């Protein structure tokens, strides 16, 4: 934590995340998806834009195993084509 | 004073979060609309570096799974930390985070992560902890951000004990 602020300087105020906290993946059910994502990053010079599919796969894995509230992809920043329907149940 | 209040928000948020499972509904509606409408600003890459710390009395091994990720404003990104409990007993941790530079922090939006809520690790257990975030597209329109192309995201884990409160700097009271 950054506490080396001189008196009078603005203090960073942390805020809670929009959708709350991820439940812990105690059993590691989505570990493989995570590894694929990290490999993708490693191969693409840590460029997030190149690994969107893998990130989406990881989040899909979480939703499938009740480790994340189901959400429509556009609301997570993954624009959807009109004919796909990944709707929340 | 305001910092004290914001840290008081932590236990309040925890209670609220547990009641509603995944965060408040009202603020979620606005955030989600923003996310679905925002456009990635491809010509403004930002390197987000990841830092992990634990309080000195906290025994978890906590580290980021990637040293940095290059993102662009308006595009959601996923990052991972790993935490391991090397002890023979259950340890409950709670984390907070910080973003530097200070001025960039206002554009850093977390959709979901593992902070502020208590996380329990069993003896010798290791878990992956994701952070799902984005940099607000308005970042690219702020003249003060013109020369900022690196942001550091730091998470710190504390051990959550009875009556524990996330520490507040003394001069902030």
UniProtKB/TrEMBL annotation, chain A:
Cellular-component GO terms for this entry: mitochondrial intermembrane space
Keyword tags: Cytoplasm, Disulfide bond
Localization annotation: Cytoplasm
Gene Ontology biological process terms, A to Z: mitochondrial respiratory chain complex IV assembly
Annotated region (Disordered), positions in chain: 1-24
Protein family: Belongs to the COX19 family.
Identification of the protein by name: Cytochrome c oxidase assembly protein COX19
Lineage: Eukaryota, Metazoa, Ecdysozoa, Arthropoda, Hexapoda
UniProtKB/TrEMBL annotation, chain B:
Gene Ontology annotations for the cellular component aspect, listed alphabetically: mitochondrial inner membrane
Main location: mitochondrion
UniProt entry keywords in alphabetical sequence: Membrane, Transmembrane, Transmembrane helix
Database matches in Pfam families: CtaG_Cox11
Membrane topology term: Single-pass membrane protein
Molecular function GO labels: copper ion binding
Membrane keyword on record: yes
Cell location: Mitochondrion inner membrane
SUPFAM superfamilies, sorted: Ctag/Cox11
Tagged with keyword Transmembrane helix: yes
InterPro entries noted in UniProt: CtaG/Cox11_dom_sf (IPR023471), Cyt_c_oxidase_assmbl_CtaG (IPR007533)
Domain of life: Eukaryota
Quaternary data: Interacts with CNNM4/ACDP4. Interacts with RANBP2.
Task performed by this protein: Exerts its effect at some terminal stage of cytochrome c oxidase synthesis, probably by being involved in the insertion of the copper B into subunit I.
Protein name: Cytochrome c oxidase assembly protein COX11, mitochondrial
Organism this protein belongs to: Leptosia nina
